[in-house]
Amino acid sequence: MDKRIEKYIKAHHLLTLAVCGKGEPYCANCFYAYNIENRSLIFASDIKTKHINEAISNPRIAGTVSKETKNIDKIQGIQFTGRLKNSLTLEEMKSYFEKFPFAKSHKPLLWSIELDFVKFTDNLLGFGKKIVWQKI
Question: Hey, which residues does 26 pair with through a beta bridge?
Fold first, then answer.
């Protein structure tokens, strides 16, 4: 994956998750940590939530991480697709708790989004500049 994409993902902590499990789209915002080894986004969510139930029904998901700005020259953000997983590696769990140490005492249920496509829009590199990564 391009280092500029990874740097952007690591610098942020809030994603928008888009799911469509039973034919009805739904979105949710989640705090996340990035695990560089597995190219995965780790987040916590209760199994009773609508977005998790939809994602269990259809684990193919999409999402965004974006920086809010009114200055068009500073627009940056990613769009991604991936697959939801509920079996995390120890490294993935460690990534999450290092970024959000306060969460450990709550014993959250952690989920992983294994990335397979990322499009990074970075107007700091030039208007409409896109960097694309796709898992082989």
Answer: 19
- CA distance linking residue 58 with residue 43, whole number of Å: 17
**Could you report how far apart the first and last alpha carbons of the chain are, in Å?**
11
Structural domain count of the chain: 1
Q: Where are the beta strands (DSSP E) in 8-109?
A: 14-20, 25-35, 40-44, 60-66, 76-85
Return the SS3 of 89: coil
Q: How far apart are CA 106 and CA 86, in angstroms?
A: 18
pLDDT of residue 23: 77
* Cα 98 to Cα 20, 31, 39, 92, distances in angstroms: 30, 13, 16, 10
> CA 128, CA 131: separation in Å to the nearest integer?
10
Q: Take residue 106 and report the two structure tokens written for it.
A: 């709550």
Low-confidence ranges of the chain (pLDDT < 70): none
Domain housing 82: 3-134
Region label for 84, one of left (φ > 0), alpha (ψ between -120 and 50) or beta (otherwise): beta
Q: Give the single-character DSSP code of 109.
A: P
The CATH number for 85's domain is 2.30.110.10
